[in-house]
Request: fold
Amino acid sequence: MTYNFDQLIPRENTNAFKYDALSEIFGNKDAIPMWVADMDFHTPDFIVEALKKRLDHEIFGYTKRPDSFNNSLVQWVKKRHGWEIQPDWVSFSPGVVPACSMSVLAFTDPGDKVIVQPPVYFPFFSVVRENGRELVHNQLILKEGRYFMDFDDLEKKASEGAKMIIISHPHNPGGMVWGKEELMELGTIAEKYDMLILSDEIHSDLIFSPYRHIPMASLSAEIADRTITTMAPSKTFNLAGFSTSAMIISNEKLRKKYEKVLSTIHVGMGNIFGNIAFETAYTMGEEWLGQLLVYLQRNIQFTTDFICNQIPGIKVIKPEATYMVWLDCRKLGMDAKELNRFLVHDAGLALSDGAMFGPGGEGFTRMNVACPMEVLEKALRNLKSAIYSLKNLD
Ligand SMILES: Cc1ncc(COP(=O)(O)O)c(C=O)c1O
Reply:
């Protein structure tokens, strides 16, 4: 079956955060929404069918996750990433950010140091700070259009007693697929200083050829023993509204600690539709995902070429994964406030402000290109004409 990603689907007035919060957040309800990380494509038909079938039963009482829930993830990670996991290593979480927050609670104590690598997905900062832990930055280094980990700095900070590092793997917003050598080096430092690794792998299915996702915990038994992995079908299959994701923890002691937090705050049951969407996605999603990746890769290439050839002053950090494109706007010479005003009001685009992603994000903006090509073309044309009027170019 051929899926149609070109279809324009109105999302206004559906309580879609990306659309219906535009006025509130950006002060421009007509801006093209390319901020929140969900996609403007239909969730796959086979998932919708499975949900409708359950809906037809018309009783929606308390639910139990069947064994097939965990098994669907076991099979998926084996097929997609060559990673062999056991069903009983899998725990539930009502979302990946909640999984990160619960991990901070489960594996660290108030006042403990937790490392993050900015510029990075900003809830990492709040799950550390708001749980009363100390946030430590291990700044990424931008070199020739790609971010790299700074291992000297990481080792220094690990040696100062950090209990845990949270990594975005693949990386949001930079789009890097961390390679085996980088991951091994990180793992070696974690082992040397007895630091846990929380690996947020929510984007791990959105990888573009020739890159391959290597789950952090698949590197060695020793690294697996100190790694907590979180995954979900929510980005891949556009299911974020179901708040259903998974933790993979092979170390039984750590898993029990996590599950204790999950049961203490009583969020382990999940919801009836999220369970169905999760399992159906992982069981039936391969063909759809193959077509999605082709479409996204084309959008990314189009964005890269368009900006590179037609928009002076902006540089693209080309993603190896994810549908987010990280744009370096520093040459425009605007401060954060002026850049945001320019993008929202002159270009008519609602993008994610780079400064939110922490140190190193200032002067950048993140563009979500998971939309029909027609929308993307319009957005890039808007950006071009705003830049040209700014620079008074022909
Ligand atoms: C790296 C990363 N982690 C987590 C999330 C959100 O996860 P959830 O909605 O399951 O809390 C996102 C969403 O953009 C993300 O990019």
Summary: The CA atoms of residues 159 and 193 lie 6 Å apart. The pocket of pyridoxal-5'-phosphate is lined by residues 37, 95-97, 121, 168, 172, 200, 202, 232, 234, 240, 245 (CB under 6 Å). The mean pLDDT is 97. The first strand starts at residue 32 and ends at 33.
